[in-house]
Design a protein that fits this description.
globular; two-stranded antiparallel sheet; four-stranded mixed sheet; about 65% helix; mainly alpha
């Protein structure tokens, strides 16, 4: 009876962990506020799990022991580097402009990091990993449907709850955070796609799940495009390119797939991308000019629509002669009696009889990032070794137009400023170790024709790209799902495979 009771208790703990996984992307939901600190559902579940696991251990320490596999699953190098990373965060508080903020942010970082330590306790078998992926899929579907709904509401003039109108942020505070999550989601969906692709025959049930995964890829692509997050787009492109490199290699080796399946996968994924663009246009789901957005990424110039006073000019040709092709700032338009307008305002401005024209302005995001990087490097030069503590760079950079604190807009700069040189070196060592392990799993899997190791090696490399390419222009280290990802990819899958 005692054994059955213990099994039931462990099942309850595992289900709580699955709920934690489900709620990780729902960053906007506040479960409870304590002393002006907002606690999200996954954070509350994290506290509950640690409390009851600790209590269970204290009450039954003579009867139960932590499973040996928990320690075998750990990669000791990553554990060591992570401890050094957290230690460096506290050492950096000595240089902090506001030590209270630095301490608070460092404690939040450790709380998020505890997801990493908790992961191997629950995901210690391949079957449990599959269950966790299913729950993650349920959460993904909810986030994506909500994000697409937001933009549909915006397009129809209804309440949309978007931080920046026209750019869905779904369950996240910003559209860029959603974009990072979707790029990482794409790496999981690609892995599942390859699992189905590698099978010679699909039964009715598996064929349905294959179609469901393709449907989810389609929804992911739609929402990823709608976020208008260029950094996330870059991450998704890098992930897709790397995925096809793996597929080509496997096709040549005739492992998992052949060239016929390679062609099938190319046509399917290209078709899904084109379909997503078509649906966004035909429904429609966005007012953004995506081509212009892409061009501005390369050129640094953004095409904008302006309205000019009809009484100032005798004809539109006169306006075109006097109006410059490029401007650096919107204030330059005042001397031409013109002003910037949104696409939805074109019709009303035409009814007023005003002239509608287009000019190029210097992309404000480029200018803002240049200023951020300049100030960040200035602070790094002053505090090269220890940094200035977490959360303190915003005191130097100030706030954006929406009143949000600015960050270093680069995860590596953010880590260097937050935890100093020791923290940066430790962080880089963790990433290099994960990449190294990914390559090791893949090539050992190819050599031994072990499908499980091949797939996991691919996932490690794809997910690493999906998360860190967008974070070259963002600082997403405080996102909960990052620490779950880190906990999973840090598992020793030579051990996991045996369980």
């Amino acid at each position: 009876m005692l054994i059955n009771f213990r099994k039931n208790v462990n099942k309850v703990f595992f289900f709580l962990f699955l709920f934690l996984i489900f709620f990780l992307p729902w960053e906007k939901i506040v479960f409870i506020s304590v002393y002006n600190i907002d606690i999200r559902p996954y954070q509350f579940l994290l506290f509950v799990l640690y409390f009851f696991l600790g209590l269970d251990y204290l009450l039954n320490k003579k009867k139960i022991k932590f499973k040996k596999v928990f320690w075998k699953l750990r990669q000791k190098k990553i554990d060591l580097f992570l401890v050094l990373f957290f230690l460096a965060s506290f050492l950096s508080m000595g240089n902090a402009l506001n030590k209270k903020i630095a301490l608070k942010q460092s404690l939040i970082l450790i709380i998020l990091g505890s997801i990493y330590w908790l992961t191997p306790y629950f995901i210690n078998q391949k079957n449990k990993l599959k269950v966790a992926i299913k729950w993650f899929y349920f959460s993904i579907l909810g986030v994506i449907v909500y994000g697409i709904w937001q933009n549909w509401q915006f397009m129809h003039g209804y309440q949309h709850y978007e931080t920046m109108p026209g750019r869905p942020n779904a369950s996240f505070v910003e559209a860029d955070w959603l974009g990072i999550f979707l790029a990482l989601t794409l790496s999981v969906e690609y892995l599942v796609f390859l699992v189905f692709l590698s099978q010679n025959k699909l039964g009715q049930k598996k064929y349905f799940y294959h179609f469901l995964n393709l449907f989810l890829i389609e929804l992911t692509l739609i929402l990823l495009i709608l976020t208008v997050s260029r950094s996330a787009w870059l991450g998704a492109v890098g992930t897709t390119f790397c995925f096809f490199l793996f597929l080509i290699y496997l096709a040549f080796k005739k492992i998992l797939i052949n060239f016929k399946k390679l062609l099938y996968s190319s046509l399917i994924l290209a078709g899904l991308f084109l379909l997503s663009l078509f649906l966004i246009k035909i429904i429609p789901l966005s007012k953004f000019e995506f081509k212009n957005r892409l061009q501005s990424t390369q050129s640094g110039w953004q095409e904008i629509t302006i309205s000019c006073n009809k009484n100032k000019y005798q004809s539109f040709q006169e306006l075109k002669k006097k109006l410059p092709l490029k401007i650096n700032d919107l204030d330059e338009l005042k001397k031409y009696q013109c002003h910037f307008i949104k696409l939805e305002e074109i019709a009303s401005e035409k009814r007023k009889g005003n002239y509608i024209a287009k000019v190029y302005r210097s992309d404000p995001n480029f200018n803002i990032r240049q200023k951020i990087y300049k100030k960040s490097f200035q602070e790094i030069k002053k505090h090269f070794i220890l940094g200035i503590g977490w959360g303190n760079i915003s005191l130097v950079l100030g706030k954006d137009s929406l009143g949000n604190n600015l960050n270093a807009s680069n995860i590596f700069l953010e880590v260097w400023l937050g935890s100093g040189l020791l923290g940066l070196v430790s962080f880089l060592a963790i990433l290099i170790n994960i990449f190294q392990k990914g390559g090791e799993y893949f090539f050992i899997g190819v050599k031994q024709k072990d499908n499980f190791l091949i797939l996991w090696g691919i996932f490690l490399c794809l997910s690493l790209l999906a998360f860190f390419v967008p974070n070259l222009f963002n600082s997403g280290i405080m996102l909960g799902f990052f620490w779950l990802w880190l906990g999973i990819v840090s598992l020793d899958f030579f051990v996991l495979q045996k369980n």
